[in-house]
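re: ur question from earlier - yeah i can do the single chain one, its not a big deal. heres the input i used so u can compare w yours
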Amino acid sequence: CAGADIGELGGRTLMEQKRGAELGQATFAMLDRLPIPSLAIVNGYAFGGGLELALACTFRLVTPNAKLATPEIKLGLLPGYGGTQRLPRIVGEARALEMVLTGKSVDAQLALAWGLASGIVEGDENAVLEKGMAFAREFSGYSLPVLSLAREAVRRALDTPLHEGLKIEADLSTLAFNTEDAAEGTAAFVEKRKPKFKDR
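and the output i got, formated as tokens:
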């Protein structure tokens, strides 16, 4: 995805631009806050809004030909759908600044090395999708409420001092402990069988 239609930007008023950015941010925030993990597979270009969409996902897989960039600076603009906020949380401030201030693209290998991608998947479109589904199956069989609590605990670590984060972790792990799925998971472990989670 190459992002926004640049031709549309020229006729916007300041208020239309602000509303557009807020709508894009709100849309991607809904994806970012899903109670279940999400996965983007980048096959080719993810520039501008396309990269910002991928950044709103929990995980990103890329194909060997993937290119990821925030090229807005080349147009006298900057990312407006959350790219300046999510990118440094994923790759760190220096690498995010390198991408945002130069507009240079990152290839699949560099995306993997920087932590921008969780893996590189190869093959035709069907093979890539199947590998993405296999990646998702690694966590999709777990308790959804507990997955959500675990995501929340990790997310809160990014903007909370350690001593407060530890309290949050204790609270969230106690909530997880109180689920039916925790009882099932521990019983299954003791009984040496696969747990049958019911998302409760």
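Residues 14-32 form the longest helix (19 residues). not sure if urs matches, ping me
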